[in-house]
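Dear support,

I submitted the protein below through the web form. The confirmation email said the job was done, but the results page showed an empty box. After a refresh the structure appeared. I'm attaching both so you can tell me whether what I see now is the final result or a partial one.
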Amino acid sequence: MVVETETGRDESEAAAAAASAMDDGPCGEREGGGDAAAKAVGEKDAGEGDEPKEEEEDGRDREEEEEEAAKRGWSEIRLAIEELSAVDVERRGGKPPPPSPPPPTLTFLALSHLLLQVLDKIGPTMAVLRLDVQRNIERLQELYLLDPSKCYNLEEILEKEVHEGTARKVDSCARAVLWLTRSMDFTIALLQRLEEDSDQKCFAQLVESAYMVTLKPWHGWISSAAYKIAMKLIPERRMFINLLVGNCQDCAALKEEIRKLAKLLKPFLDDIHAMMAKFRLDKLKST
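What the results page shows now:
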């Protein structure tokens, strides 16, 4: 009897254990199912969270494309203002101006390319000057591309050539910087005369006036003779203004942009002239 009782107890305990195991099984499955469901919900939430980010990135891309499309209709003057505005912000930093940083090479090259476009609008008159500008841009650009980190600003380029003893050579980048700067002096002087002139002088007079104070002092007799011949091909004033005006712009807006450009460009060019004087390269002349 004792044996039977113990056996019965063992069987009862075994049955209870089996029942417990059966109960645990479904619970385990339910808990596992709950974890999977939670994971699925989490993945769904994560997926839903990614959608606004993608939409935001798409929105930024569209804005950039629209901005680029708008810039295609800008005048060269407005594009130059855009380039110089970034330099002006860096220069001021919203505080009283510290010593100006050396002029960035890329900004200088961008302005030089815009200068070419303005000279193209003047026409064949500026063919000789335009060719010089283009060659100087190419020379400076080639040097920059060889080592952008060492040619980040113009002062580094001048220091390198002065140290090597090549700065005064005809094909030096120092001369390229000098003549590109003088060409910008001429361009802004011409634009300012165009903006300020109330007597409606002929365009040839404005060009000659700008030339006499910016390029003439540094031109030898060959360059001066070439200029005199070119003066015979000066376009009409109205034609030049029409070529300068960008899309959706009028003469009043053009004058305002010329004033803005002059205000931004003058300190930039002054810094370059001061830098050239520092290296005693500011008095070099052409033939």
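Response: this is the final, complete result; the empty box was a page-load delay. Residues 75-278 form a domain with the Glycolipid transfer protein, GLTP fold (CATH 1.10.3520.10).
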